Amino acid sequence: MRRNNSSITGYFILFFVLVLVGAVVYIYQSDTFEQNKPVVSAEKTIYWNLRDKLNINISDDTGIKYYKVTYIDGENETVLGTKILNNGEKNIDLSLDAPKVGMFYKGQDVKIIVEATDISKWNFLNGNAIQVTLNIIIDTQRPIANAIANTYAISRGGSSVAIVEVRDENLQDMYITFNDKTRFELTPFYKDGFYIALIAWPMDIEAFEQVSLIATDKANNTTRTKVPLYVREYKYKTDNLEISDDFINNVSTVVLENSRKEIDEDLIRRFLRSNIELRGENISTIKKVTLDAMDVARVNSFEISPFKRLANSKTLAGYGDQRNYFYKGQQIDTQWHLGIDWASVRQAPIHTSNSGKIIYKDYLGIYGNTLMIDHGLGLSSLYAHFSSAMVDIGQSVKANTHIANTGATGAVFGDHLHFGILVQGIEVNPLEWMDRNWIQTRITDIIQNSKKVIDSK
């Protein structure tokens, strides 16, 4: 009997241990008793202008049952938001209003305390809790943003220079925009707080609305200042071009193949894939390359010589020509020609007009073999359709360097040079940059005169 009682006791103990182990395993593996604390997603230091809402995210694997957000400024505490959630929510996006403060409030030593508890049964059924402290910097002042000097007028496709003043201890971003559509980066200039940019009126923007200087700080205070530019009329010509089956088969097709693009059976679609889709990608590449190459170091001046035409050449097409493309008498496309085409003898030598650094050397779709040279301050020159090149990417070149020979690569009818001038990746009218007087009066003098204004401040 004793053995039987011992056996029963042993079985009971074993059963109890198994139940206990099972319970422990269940607790540790069950979502009901999960141990992960809620997560508060927000910057540890937040700049707040007290006008915008404060955005905070709270998340949890099982669900939030309670949260509280408290604003503390050293003297006062204000609850910005609190709630008990009966069903629990896994993701909560809070958009909180600022506390009411006086006109002259500066907000020293401000903190936000975020408390949250989930619906887990862990911690003796009380759930997992978290408390996060966020440092708040109150900034209600807009940045200082002034136009100091700029070119008087600009034409469609033309260039300009602007020198501006931007100041803010919490500055986040600053740039110049054309019609709020095209962004131009600023380069530090001359003295602290002053910046310079070459800007342009892109050909694909028909109407001039406004050129603006935008400055935004980390608290999202924004200042918008007008850059006072006037419009100068400039007339461009129109060309009607008939596209043949031969051109599509022997030019457009080759360009698409070299660019690893789909070759459509339909000839019109094949031409349009090259002339619209590929052209757009090529223009995007040009802009990216030139922006990536921009030097952000401070400049005190900008010296540039007039660019020269290809020696002993004839002009085949000008900048800004509107090209209407026809196929069997029906118009199928319209594009802008964004450079100057010069033709001389086959494989004519191409020389630089200014020193610079080679930032691109590759096959570029409709442009064919292409070189780009960075001349500083976001100004670059482009040489397309060449047959052979004497320079390599990353190489610095001096003025009058023999860099390449003309060719017929890309979407062209014959051997020539497509020459372009780029302002932060936008092809502008090269004739301006080939005119010594224009460079002097529209660019160099403006920069020099701006220094006098800066010195007087």
Number of separate domains: 3
Distance between the termini: 108 Å
Largest sheet: 8 strands, antiparallel
The Cα radius of gyration reads 33 Å
Poorly predicted regions: none
CATH homology-level superfamily of the largest domain: Glucose Permease (Domain IIA)
CATH architecture of the largest domain: Distorted Sandwich
Q: How does the overall form come out from the CA principal axes?
A: extended
Strand fraction: 35-45%
Describe the model.
This protein has 457 residues and is of the alpha+beta class. It folds into three domains: 35-138, Immunoglobulin-like, CATH 2.60.40; 144-233, Immunoglobulins (Immunoglobulin-like); 238-428, Glucose Permease (Domain IIA) (Distorted Sandwich). 21% of the residues lie in helices and 41% in strands. It has five helices and 30 strands. It has helices at 2-29, 245-258, 267-293, 430-433, 436-456; strands at 39-41, 45-48, 54-72, 77-96, 110-118, 129-138, 144-150, 153-154, 159-167, 171-178, 182-184, 187-188, 194-200, 211-217, 222-227, 230-231, 238-242, 314-317, 321-327, 330-337, 340-343, 349-351, 356-363, 369-374, 379-384, 388-389, 396-397, 402-405, 417-423, 426-428. The strands form seven sheets. Strands 18, 21, 23, 24, 25, 27, 29 and 30 form an eight-stranded antiparallel sheet that branches. Strands 1, 2, 3, 4, 5 and 6 form a six-stranded mixed sheet that branches. It has a four-stranded antiparallel sheet with strand order 7-9-13-12. A hairpin with a 4-residue loop joins strand 3 (54-72) and strand 4. Helix 2 crosses helix 3. The N and C termini lie far apart (108 Å). The mean pLDDT is 91.
